[in-house]
Amino acid sequence: MEPELRRQEILAAAFRQLAVRGFEGLRVRSIAQDAGIHHATLLHYFPTKEALIEGFIEELAARFRSGSAPPSEVRADPLEALRWEFTDARRRLRREPEAIAVTVELMLRARRDPLVAGLLARMFGGWRRQLEGIVRRGIGTGAFRADLDAGAVADALIAEVQGMSLLWLAGTPLERIDALAAIGGRTLEELLRP
Amino acid sequence: MEPELRRQEILAAAFRQLAVRGFEGLRVRSIAQDAGIHHATLLHYFPTKEALIEGFIEELAARFRSGSAPPSEVRADPLEALRWEFTDARRRLRREPEAIAVTVELMLRARRDPLVAGLLARMFGGWRRQLEGIVRRGIGTGAFRADLDAGAVADALIAEVQGMSLLWLAGTPLERIDALAAIGGRTLEELLRP
Amino acid sequence: MEPELRRQEILAAAFRQLAVRGFEGLRVRSIAQDAGIHHATLLHYFPTKEALIEGFIEELAARFRSGSAPPSEVRADPLEALRWEFTDARRRLRREPEAIAVTVELMLRARRDPLVAGLLARMFGGWRRQLEGIVRRGIGTGAFRADLDAGAVADALIAEVQGMSLLWLAGTPLERIDALAAIGGRTLEELLRP
Amino acid sequence: MEPELRRQEILAAAFRQLAVRGFEGLRVRSIAQDAGIHHATLLHYFPTKEALIEGFIEELAARFRSGSAPPSEVRADPLEALRWEFTDARRRLRREPEAIAVTVELMLRARRDPLVAGLLARMFGGWRRQLEGIVRRGIGTGAFRADLDAGAVADALIAEVQGMSLLWLAGTPLERIDALAAIGGRTLEELLRP
DNA sequence: GATGAATGAGATTTCATTCAT
DNA sequence: TATGAATGAAATCTCATTCAT
Q1: Most Cβ neighbours (<10 Å): which of A179, B104, D166, D174?
Q2: Which residue of B has its CA nearest to A175?
Q3: A169 chain-B contacts, CB cut-off 8 A
């Protein structure tokens, strides 16, 4: 098997294990088993557990949000573009529920690990800039009110979406998450329209 | 020293250690040291680490929200009562930042530990019911729109507040958290008023 | 059992194991087994293998040559005092053959470990000073020639004695070692008498 | 590259590594790297680490003392021939200091490895016979005293020379080694002349 | 012949827990 | 009640060796 492919498989296994057991229960042996290899083989690719975690974080940083651009017909309308965040969040909750737990694990780790703090800063920074741009655009075209703090709106939207994920983690059923998202979308409209 | 007092001290130490190191780095010896006792003595009060964690969670459940009732002048006005959540969240961020990390740790653990899941269900359930009641009351008095799903509004508010904490954990500076909270308060107004 | 006693037992076991297996084959488990304890117990006394080795070296340094003073009737005559080194060496070869191997192990390790280098410097420095003093005394009383480099004589005697030990290590039988020592004693006489 | 040449390169690398790290730190991978080849390739030439060490020892045995014959004008005079051992030892200390450490490593290993014990027996046996022959010759020609045990003199000389190396290993500076050798030469004269 | 991947045995170390005092 | 000593289980990591290409 090709080394790069195997590396990817190991990282995927690390992702799954992290989602299920958290950093608390993350074990080299379990990751190796999940990847279908001997644990010494894993350490052939990543010399230490720490290196594996680093590699994992760098991989996440590289892939982050590469696949979550909104469709073009949505991007045209600023309000729709913002609302699409809720749609996207709900979809991710269903398609990649593991990613939620992993993200929250990383947030906790960020306090102790500068590498993770940097990753999160880039992830949230990029997301925030994107949303802030949309809000500014809306203000520019007159679609949104002029007296809004675009950055704060972006932060508020991100907080709402992240909070949704957190509630889901804590056991809130999906129907309630959906209802919450609907309120979120409506809120955006009320807040932004002139 | 009185046994009950010592138990409380141990639990307080566990809380501090959990905030700083997370479940990942939680050690019986560190907790004992933090509490100023020998680790074997700790296991005298809590026979196993697991029992200590259980005791800790039960303690949290007992104390939950006992101290965060809004002042009476605020409770009178439903909108103010809801807005007060943001004020309260900002205050907790400053006064008990450790509690944030602990709460998020518990949310992650909830997926693996039914006891924690139950605790969180009670915690968030109580909170939600309280907020839902306020919204219903506002609708009843005509202060709020009639076409709102009170439960969903409560969930949305909780999500926003929790999302705030999460952003703070991920490194967002307090000024931006404050600006975000301001937007949140305004949003509530726009959403709820008839 | 008293902790200090146990520490001593562990160090004694380390000594024996080092003599038999060398640093090459030195294992924490074997030392613990030799001391009759669980290997985790050993690490209760010495937190790491490295710390154990350090403790061992410091112990050696503390004990070095404390018990090998020559009898008083020998000390009176400088020539006898020097000759006594051969007697002592032969006795040590028979009584504590393990110490030879350990000493040579330490000499090899000295090149990589400054702690050991320091220990050996002190050990050989003290020994050399003692012998040098004897030679000077002999010169002063007229028992020895006046044109001798006392330090070099001390070094030569040490080298001969150490070389004896090395030959024994390499398999030379004891009778030949004894014959060698006899030559050494005679050599001293020829070299030193005026 | 020719197989025999490569074998030699590997053995040379093993020699260097053994001198620097000792048996304690000897690693197949390091030797291969030192020889500029992949470690799996090394195991192609020597199927196991043990086989490599064996090959190394046999090589040493084959080469032993092949290059250290004294010059002819020295060999003529028995006293000079013996004294030449000190000259040779001092030269080796400067030209091939690595060989000292390797030799001492082998002496320690001899206790556990009959192959090494055999090698050393041959090495020292040959050396001793050579020196013993010189002494006998000196006695025969009347250059030396008649009452000497030729074998013991040879052993004493070997011990002195080996002891010199050991002192050097333990950190004695070269000037003191030279002074010691001078004493050694003088001693020989005093001991042997009629 | 040469090499990268893979693995099994075993080493050190951590840590919750038990036991005797 | 309190504690130091002791231990067993398990985790990470090292390293010689094997195998497929």
Answers
A1: D166
A2: B152
A3: 107-108, 110-111
Q: What is D126-191 written as a DSSP string?
A: HHHHHHHHHHHHHHHTTSS-SS--HHHHHHHHHHHHHHHHHHHHTT--HHHHHHHHHHHHHHHHHH
Which residues, at least 6 apart from C162, have a Cβ–Cβ distance to it below 8 Å? D162, D163, D166, D167
**CB spacing of C162 vs D167 below 8 angstroms:** yes
Domains and CATH numbers, chain B: 3-47 (1.10.10.60), 62-192 (1.10.357.10)
Between the alpha carbon of residue D8 and those of residues B15, D46, D101, D172, the distances in Å are 64, 12, 20, 33
CB D22, CB D105: distance < 8 Å? yes
pTM for the model stands at 0.90
Sequence-ordered list of residues with C-beta below 8 angstroms from that of D151, at least 6 positions apart, any chain: C176, C179, D128, D132
Q: Pick the residue from chain D with its C-alpha nearest to C125.
A: D172
Residues of A in contact with B110 (CB under 8 A): 169-171
Q: pLDDT confidence of B194, banded at 50, 70, 90? A: confident
Distance (Å) from CA A13 to C1' F13?
Answer: 20
Q: First and final CA of chain B: distance in angstroms?
A: 59
End-to-end CA distance of chain D: 59
- Cβ-contact D157, C167 below 8 angstroms: no
Report, in ranges, which bases of strand E sit under 7 Å from a protein C-beta.
1-9, 11-20
CA angle B134, B138, B141 (to 5 degrees): 135
| Chain segment B144-190, per-residue pLDDT in tens | 999 999 999 999 999 999 999 999 999 999 999 999 999 999 999 99
